[in-house]
Amino acid sequence: MVDDNCLFCRIVSGELAAAVVYEDDNSVAFLDHRPLFHGHTLLVPREHVETLGDLPAEQLEPYFTAAQLLARAIESAMEAEGTFVAMNNRVSQSVPHLHVHVVPRRKKDGLKGFFWPRTKYKDEEEIESVQRKIISKIKRAKI
Domain holding 121: CATH number? Predict the structure, then answer.
């Protein structure tokens, strides 16, 4: 099922452009356009579901396997000390389509509690550079 009014469904369908770093039969991951830190990625199911409770049980394992792969790849690609992996269900969910945030983290990076200062990429070239780094690490991890 797809929702024609959903921003993420439009990205999944290719109608809207995004810096995609990963895709499989069940999900698509792309760089957040307003990242907490460079490399901040969103993983969405291809099927339009609003919350984790709406995700069909048979998609749980492949969805979270993809989240695990992204967490490893993003940490490595961005030379981070770890990652922050999070999901909102309705409250604070800016797009009503299930998505997991995978954010590279470093000690003393300024992220405290749930105060999330957003940044921007300098230009399209910087987005593409980060995209290539993450894709490279994903390809290596899948071997």
Answer: 3.30.428.10
Give the domain range for residue 46: 7-141
Query: Which residue type, as a one-letter code, is found at position 74?
Result: I
Q: How confident is the model at residue 142 (pLDDT cuts 50, 70, 90)?
A: low
For residue 81, give both structure tokens. 């000390």
Cβ burial 42-53 (10 Å sphere, 16+ → b, else e): bbbbbbbbbeee
Measured distance between the N- and C-terminal CA atoms of the chain, rounded to whole angstroms: 32
- The answer to whether residue 27 sits within a structural domain is yes
pTM: 0.85
H or E element, residue 105: strand 100-105
pLDDT digits (tens, 9 = 90+) for 65-120: 999 999 999 999 999 999 999 999 888 888 999 999 999 999 998 877 666 667 88
Query: How far is it, in rounded angstroms, from Cα 76 to Cα 70?
Result: 10
Number of domains in the chain: 1
Contact 78, 104 (CB under 8 A): yes
Residue type, 103: V
